[in-house]
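Question (not urgent): is this output format expected?
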Amino acid sequence: MLLRMKILRSTFALLLLIVAAVLPATAQDWAKAALDKSPRHREWVSVKHGDRTVQAFVVYPEVSTKAPVVVLIHEIFGLSDWARLQADEIAAQGYIVIAPDLLSGLGTNGAGTSGFATQDDVTKAVSGLDATQVNADLDAVASYGKALPAASNKLAVVGFCWGGGKSFAFATHRRDLSAAFVFYGPPPADVMAITAPVYGFYAGNDARIGATVPGTVKSMKASCNKYQPVTYDGAGHGFMRAGQQPDATDANKKAYNDAFTRLTTLLKTM
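Got this back:
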């Protein structure tokens, strides 16, 4: 009997591990619940360029005039529920927000982020994305956004973590950007081609990315580019997502609130 109980417990534990492994990599129930309560119009669109199709999540603000477009670049965790929630919350401030799934077509059965079995699989896939393809995808969704009847001629890009680095890199590539917002992402190797102002948001407890800031200040100054970094004391890498989680630390929560206020304030100056 004792041996049988041990076997049953072992089997149950194994089943729990299997279930955990196959759950959607980006499941964030708290973020999805908040998003489901949004009154804003949200839709998925297919943006084609060349032989590739990118699925993008679009959120419209409830405004009576044409709105600037913000391209949102997801974290290394793919287009998660939190990334879509963040798109919705920025849209609430008066912007058309387009969040492309840069894993479009790369998951099981041609899916994007949702087509990967585990978070590790998503992370590896995002890490392996070709930089040229990423810029092409971002170009396509940015041009799609600017062509919308409800859009003004203003375009900004905002990215988080891995997406923060891609936001900085996109600023070297896209000449019609009004602003680039970099949340705890590394700088590109060459900043000479940047024409838009770049605003950085960094965590005090993130030495890996924080160590890149002094050099970036120097290189941006040398190329006469506007770069304004702010570091949030006590916050950890990924504080925008972590600061909204139910178990958020006080430091991450404060960093999120302060950074979101700064973001929306700067967007209004475009």
